[in-house]
Write a structure and sequence with these properties.
Shape: elongated
Number of helices: 3
Helix content: over 70%
Structural class: mainly alpha
Strand content: under 5%
Largest sheet: none
Number of strands: 0
Radius of gyration: 20 Å
Length: 89
């Protein structure tokens, strides 16, 4: 019985990681298609299709800067806590 507990914790943690990765992949695809649509729409509004893509690129550039700036608080700490909680459960 004592051997099953670590296996159960590991499988629970692994299944959580698989679910999170699946959600991330679907979210990325969703964002990709929405971004392309927004870029085309902004380009149509401005009369220059490339302008919409530059504007969307700028939005993502700002998002990358913010994500890098707050990476400890937004990513590292929550992921670390999630893994520890799953393994200590």
């Amino acid at each position: 019985r004592s051997q099953l507990k670590p296996i159960s914790k590991s499988s629970d943690a692994l299944s959580t990681v698989v679910v999170i990765i699946s959600v991330i992949i679907l979210s990325v695809l969703f964002c990709l298609f929405v971004s392309i649509g927004l870029a085309l729409w902004i380009g149509w509004l401005l009369g220059y299709s490339y302008a919409g893509f530059f504007i969307m690129g700028g939005v993502y550039g700002i998002a990358v800067i913010l994500l890098y700036r707050f990476r400890e608080r937004w990513i590292k700490t929550p992921v670390t806590n999630l893994i520890i909680n799953k393994l200590l459960k």
